[in-house]
Predict the 3D structure of the following.
Amino acid sequence: MFKFCSVAAAALLVGWSATAQQAPFGIGHKITDAQIAPWNIDIRGDDGAGLPPGRGTVAAGEKLYVQQCASCHGEFGEGNGRWPELMGGRGTLTHDDPRKTIGSYWPWAPTVFDYVRRTMPFAAPQSLSDDETYSIVAYLLHLNDLLPADASLDAKALAAVRMPNRDGFIVGDPRPDVRAVPCMKDCKKGEIEILSDLAKSLGVTPNQRPKD
Ligand code: HEC
């Protein structure tokens, strides 16, 4: 078995070095921009970078929402049974029983577009066109009193929507212990003493290793 393995490994190495000039391992090819495009659909929350061109309206969104979303999320976003609710909850985040919805909790409106286009409807993700997504998001923002009933929505207007909980997230971890500067070299001055009997018996503590 060992012999077989080493023969196989040697053959691999020879194969690799022969084509190493072209590409490591001589397999695969460079990915093109066109191949990346369908995967590169993320949208940045704070400024909406990555939002596609297109436009929708609250009115069109209501129709689409009723057809494709209401069965789970309720006709007005109130949530059907145990499916998540998509409206309300504002002012409850500091209560014992906070209601976290896109309206009460999510800090950035473009994230709603990103999420809906990427994942919903639950059984057919990424089936909505960009215009349809703008319309549905407009309707969802309307349900949360963030857009009037006659509003239309495009990339610029969506990035300009100020979500109620925008300032509710703290950037950075405020705990003092995470700010300690890690020591990477000569950290322990003086002799190292191994305290645990188990560690002594195992002999794996670094200063027990033979010097090389
Ligand atoms: C078959 C049921 C179903 C349908 C239909 C459906 N959803 Fe959902 N939706 C879910 C489930 C389940 C989740 C929670 C997923 C999770 O947390 O991983 C969810 C989560 C969401 C959320 C995030 C809620 C939050 O606060 O985290 C949004 C926004 C949303 N859906 C929008 C939509 C829209 C818009 C449509 C229609 C285009 C739609 N959904 C259709 C089941 C559904």
Residues 68-69, 71-73, 83-84, 86, 101-102, 112, 115-116, 120-123, 136 surround heme C (CB under 6 Å). The two ends are 32 Å apart (CA to CA). The CA atoms of residues 57 and 152 lie 4 Å apart. Residues 1-21 have pLDDT under 50 and may be disordered.
